[in-house]
DNA sequence: AAAAACTAAA
């Protein structure tokens, strides 16, 4: 297991370097006019850069595109707007959105959703309202995703009631909540310690013929574990396979942690064995949390290494060493 | 042929 994990991690590290090299090469080929990629190729590269947090590079690649013969289209701009939003650089994102309008490439629902999401994350609720009005004025109507983004941020800030209000509002506008809306609200209730209401939401979505998915189960299981009601969590766990869903690594990790928190280490061990034989492959986090939770001695040992790691900033190598060592 | 936005454990 440890060796496999190390290998997977190493592959990840090398893949990361490869992407950087690939982008440098890509830019060079474009600049020297050795090749001229189309919009989709550009979009793919922009996405990879955005995913890995190289927001500045997405912007410079977009500018490079503007100078070439393949002009950026709506999706290319939107990817960069989204990257800037994820980077919490809302001023730049909004500038770019306005630039799109000036260039006659009108932003669409996706562009607006990115900006609204970014503004919500920063808690700029007044600006969120402004953008809602702006998009409606342009005949772009908020969809279920737009509302889900807003509801999620409200819930994460502990304002579940406001989230419920937004949900009522969307229904009034003829936009039906989907499974993500319900999951978001459930998680919101769990986050503020109202697991009982989360359970009511869970049951009400079943009544509305929306089948809970594995994420719905994981949210509620996590809520029960936080309350130290591990038996109730276990009962839900058993329901999953009867309802045609399948527990995933999040489900197992959540229950394992719940069992450890209440000191049921034997049950945790059995549950871990059950996962190894019939469940998903544990990820690095599962293994590490098992190790950390296992004994106080190892816990202290790991923590002393973790603070060393933070100084040295070599986290991945560090985890490989710890897991191999153990 | 291939591209963009929303939900769960740490």
Automatic annotation (TrEMBL):
<dbReference type="InterPro" id="IPR002885">
    <property type="entry name" value="PPR_rpt"/>
</dbReference>
<dbReference type="InterPro" id="IPR011990">
    <property type="entry name" value="TPR-like_helical_dom_sf"/>
</dbReference>
<dbReference type="Pfam" id="PF12854">
    <property type="entry name" value="PPR_1"/>
</dbReference>
<feature type="repeat" description="PPR">
    <location>
        <begin position="108"/>
        <end position="142"/>
    </location>
</feature>
<comment type="similarity">
    <text>Belongs to the PPR family. P subfamily.</text>
</comment>
<feature type="repeat" description="PPR">
    <location>
        <begin position="38"/>
        <end position="72"/>
    </location>
</feature>
<feature type="repeat" description="PPR">
    <location>
        <begin position="143"/>
        <end position="177"/>
    </location>
</feature>
<protein>
    <recommendedName>
        <fullName>Pentatricopeptide repeat-containing protein</fullName>
    </recommendedName>
</protein>
<feature type="repeat" description="PPR">
    <location>
        <begin position="248"/>
        <end position="282"/>
    </location>
</feature>
<feature type="repeat" description="PPR">
    <location>
        <begin position="73"/>
        <end position="107"/>
    </location>
</feature>
<dbReference type="InterPro" id="IPR050872">
    <property type="entry name" value="PPR_P_subfamily"/>
</dbReference>
<feature type="repeat" description="PPR">
    <location>
        <begin position="178"/>
        <end position="212"/>
    </location>
</feature>
<dbReference type="Pfam" id="PF13041">
    <property type="entry name" value="PPR_2"/>
</dbReference>
<feature type="repeat" description="PPR">
    <location>
        <begin position="213"/>
        <end position="247"/>
    </location>
</feature>
<keyword id="KW-0677">Repeat</keyword>
């Amino acid at each position: 297991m440890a060796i496999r994990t190390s290998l997977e991690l190493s592959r990840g590290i090398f893949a990361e370097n490869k992407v950087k090299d690939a982008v440098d090469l890509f830019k060079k080929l474009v600049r020297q006019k050795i090749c001229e990629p189309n919009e989709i190729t550009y979009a793919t590269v922009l996405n990879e850069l955005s995913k890995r947090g190289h927001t500045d590079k997405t912007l410079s690649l977009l500018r490079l595109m503007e100078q070439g013969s393949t002009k950026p289209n709506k999706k290319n701009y939107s990817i960069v707007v989204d990257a800037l939003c994820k980077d919490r650089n809302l001023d730049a994102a909004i500038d770019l959105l306005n630039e799109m309008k000036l260039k006659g490439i009108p932003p669409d629902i996706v562009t607006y959703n990115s900006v609204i999401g970014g503004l919500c994350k920063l808690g700029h609720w007044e600006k969120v309202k402004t953008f809602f009005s702006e998009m409606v004025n342009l005949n772009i109507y908020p969809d279920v995703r737009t509302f889900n983004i807003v509801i999620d941020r409200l819930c994460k800030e502990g304002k579940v009631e406001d989230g419920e209000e937004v949900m009522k509002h969307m229904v009034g506008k003829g936009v039906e909540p989907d499974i993500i809306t319900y999951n978001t609200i459930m998680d919101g209730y769990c986050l503020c310690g109202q697991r009982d209401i989360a359970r009511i939401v869970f049951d009400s979505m079943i009544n509305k013929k929306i089948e809970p998915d594995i994420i719905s189960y994981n949210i509620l299981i996590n809520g029960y574990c936080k309350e130290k009601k591990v038996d109730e969590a276990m009962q839900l766990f058993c329901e999953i396979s009867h309802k045609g869903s399948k527990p995933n690594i999040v489900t197992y990790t959540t229950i394992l942690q719940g069992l450890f928190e209440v000191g049921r280490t034997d049950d945790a061990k059995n549950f871990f064995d059950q996962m190894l034989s019939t469940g998903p492959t544990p990820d690095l986090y599962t293994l590490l949390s098992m190790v950390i939770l296992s004994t106080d001695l190892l816990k202290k040992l790991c923590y002393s290494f973790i603070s060393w790691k933070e100084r040295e900033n070599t986290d991945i190598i560090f985890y490989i060493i710890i897991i191999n060592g153990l």
